[in-house]
């Protein structure tokens, strides 16, 4: 580490004379090969956390750091300086490193990415995920943050927020933790945190990991999609009250659950938000950042639903188990009543879900809650086939058959 600091000081003294004047708290991470610090704009408006990935624009052989811009140029660069440019799409400022490189008629510029701030909500979410504090203390901590109007935007979400007019949603990570099926006490506490955020006006996230979803290839068609709030709420370990909260979010924009027109409902477009993507320009040209609406129409995949029920019943990857035989079926039956209350289901969909509940009650195979012993593959296969048979009568119905996936919307 001492050697890395010495190299860094050499770099700051020569190549980064301009940066040395405007940055403080410089640090070098030898594991990720990144340079970080707090840099001040030329208008002296305050220091901004910044990070430079040396893998992208500098070569490092363990001794020397050489600016080579993405490794595309054999000749080294010199005269590096930092400059500030306005962001033409979202306002504010972008911070860049600009160098003179041999073999290039113009200076080469690379962005100095702004580091994402670590907010108090991030500390709290990390504590909940690791189980470092009793869940009731986490609920109290969240209440304290909300009362003092702390920002609830989680760290991983901030690039997504940059493109959105509407971004007041529950942190995605909280839903992700809930999907992992923690024990009953933590599940109840996490649901309390979600309800607390909702009472302060935060909606459930409309999309989960949307960038990962967009990155799926054609070979992934038919693979279960990334669980969303509704998918998680239908799991056996989540109480029916959470499902009601999710459905109330859909009613806020005066949305009908069987809507087929994608053009209307501007409030739904606002809830779903926007996303950013890059359009490359030429081989050496800088990419053009574009903004587009995220799709707000979605389908609840019935296969995903019964897969979640199967995991809670049979798979040791989730910690939830039935307190008594048939509890999962009883919970699912209560959720069907919630769906009926909010007028989500037509008669056909109600029949399908009731068939799933009946199939759960008819099972005689051992589950995780049984005292018979370890569940073998044959028992798991039998459980899955029982659930799967419940939806087979509906496979020929057009609105439940989408890209080789059974789904209801």
Automatic annotation (TrEMBL):
InterPro entries: Cyanovirin-N, Cyanovirin-N_sf. Residues 1-17 form the signal peptide. Residues 21-101 form the Cyanovirin-N domain. SUPFAM superfamilies: Cyanovirin-N. Keywords: Signal. This is Cyanovirin-N domain-containing protein.
